[in-house]
Description:
The complex is a heterodimer. By secondary structure, chain A is an alpha+beta fold. Chain A has 4 helices and 4 strands; from the N terminus they run αβααβββα. Chain A has helices at about 5-20, 35-40, 40-55, 95-110, and strands at about 25-30, 60-65, 80, 90. The N and C termini of chain A lie far apart (about 60 Å). Helices cover about 40% and strands about 15% of the residues of chain B. Chain B contains 24 helices and 18 strands. A 5-stranded mixed β-sheet of chain B has the order 7-8-6-5-9, with helices on both faces. In chain B, α10 packs across α13 (about 325-335).
Amino acid sequence: MISLADLAAIRDKMKDKVVIREGSAQTRVVVGMATCGIAAGARPVLNAFSAGVQREGLVDKITVTQTGCIGICQYEPVVEVFEDGKEKVTYVKLTPEKAERIIKEHLVGGKVVTEYTIGANQ
Amino acid sequence: MVRTHVLICGGTGCTSSKSEEIMKVMEAEIDAKGLSEEVKVVKTGCFGLCALGPIMIVYPEGTFYHSVKVEDVAEIVEEHFLKGRPVERIVYHDKGDDDVHHATSLSETAFYKKQKRVALRNCGVINPENIDEYIANDGYQALGKVLTEMTPEQVIDTVLASGLRGRGGAGFPTGRKWSLARTLVPDADQKYVCCNADEGDPGAFMDRSILEGDPHAVIEAMAIAGYAIGATQGYIYVRAEYPIAIKRLEIAIAQAKEYGLLGDNIFGTGFKFDLKLRFGAGAFVCGEETALMTSIEGNRGEPRPRPPFPAVKGLFGKPTILNNVETYANIPQIILKGVDWFTSMGTETSKGTKVFALGGKIQNTGLVEVPMGTTLREVIYDIGGGIPNGKKFKAAQTGGPSGGCITPENLDVPIDFENLMAIGSMMGSGGLIVMDEDSCMVDIARFFLEFTVDESCGKCTPCRVGTKRMLEILDKIIAGNGTLEDIDKLEELANYIKSASLCGLGQTAPNPVLSTLRYLRDEYIAQVVDKKCPAGVCKNLLQYKIIEDKCKGCTLCSRKCPVGAISGTVKNPHVIDPAKCVKCGVCMSTCKFGAIIKE
């Protein structure tokens, strides 16, 4: 027999796993996953973002998804962050470690990690 | 870490177009690409857009794939899941959506935009075979709230105040039913909670879809009902023709028992409730409450006179409530979200939403849930996508064999229990069959009447004999032998059957005839006076004729005619004897000069 507290625990544990299906998130993190991106290591970056967003409980606000080639293959892995009412931010040459910092400072903290953006890497 | 959820419909419609196999192949393909840690495949209940099945939705983007084939799976995995490029070829687009690169997500489509999903809220969202996913969407919270914070009277008052009415068709206030069962026999040693899942209307499948897509909602609601009326045992009476629904109910009941959400001492409150399944063998009359209970008792499914009503003397002679699947599916949310939320939807007398099964001559065959008060025009044209092939709308049949037809002049009537009654139809369980200009209403009326003749249990004479006589009159009309008196006789008989039959089946059986007579009497008149079927459906009213000027007298048709109905001599125009003609059409297809027509 489970108690009301157990029920709430199951709900909270499962909620993060199904909230992704609401498709209501406003902010989009888009990872370039064309051949160039995959070759440069986009898969671990995508997984780092996906795991980070779920860990921080941001699944209902942020969608992590892939896209094809953005056209700047020399800068792969490329990740773009789209936020409502703000300008698009393009991060380049990412690694899972850099992704972690973006999650903490940008996605959670709201402050763009300027040194990883395309502007700082040209 | 899972980043993508692939929801594949496991309802009956999509299963019959191989969604099970697609799921297996997809899992293998995902595994082969090394994505099994990242992409999760979930089998869900019905999404509603059955015409375009098998349906697959990919989250977080919400990409909506339709008519997916096994051959498409490898491409979806490689292109979409690995490289992030949705396979546009099979992405759903609204009609007139010119931007081919715009992957329409589920909630943006015209089909879903006007819908309000309450009873179907978890269908197509959760895996119905996993109780944890139901719990994630606030499942069993309502039961917890009821058992720990509310008295049975408060539960009944809440349901009463919500204005929820029976979704099985009659629209009796659910709270009143519960209140009667609680109070009428105060010293009853046992009471029962029953669920009517004996969905029998041709074309209706909302109850099946709820049981397949969200079985726990019904289980939770029945436990709540048990607490409210003071019952410890429930029965779900479900058709044996619904194997997937039965399987998922069995799984759901087992999981609920394992968690202690059914059984003794639920949530440690001392409340006890258990649930059993009973299978119906497909008799339509067993959807009638007294017949259903008789069938659960193990007897032949026949209705009995009321009173005594089930609230006093129901199953095994004990006070019993019987509610429909869709009714129950509303209960947990009314408890959790409150009366104000529920009464904010709907009309003055009919609150909440209603699920309709769209069928017949309509673009988007499937399941839709709309707030009460939505017009038929919105359901058929905005959500249903209109009539295929640019045909004209003639009528919609609601309420199945117990209901009636709605004609173009009533397209803008807000749908609720009272309004449908007023225009001679009924809500029924929610089957909505659309007919276009090619449908013959006499033929449709005959179809439903034949169904009730077949399904009449035979206990009372008006239904057993009366409906049979009505069918004979209709057959006579369709055969071209009808008279105007026959129409009057049909109407008179229909009214007798309506008032004298024992149960709902007989009382409503004449409705399809009465309502077509009321709105489309012209078609009956055309059949008895002009001996013509305006829609060209009724074979016996078609006449094959030879146009004298065009016939060269080649004798080909007379040689091909299997019944020797064509006579004439060489090089002289031939004639068809209508008394002998069997309307096989062979003559028309053999004539080289286009001299034979049918009218």
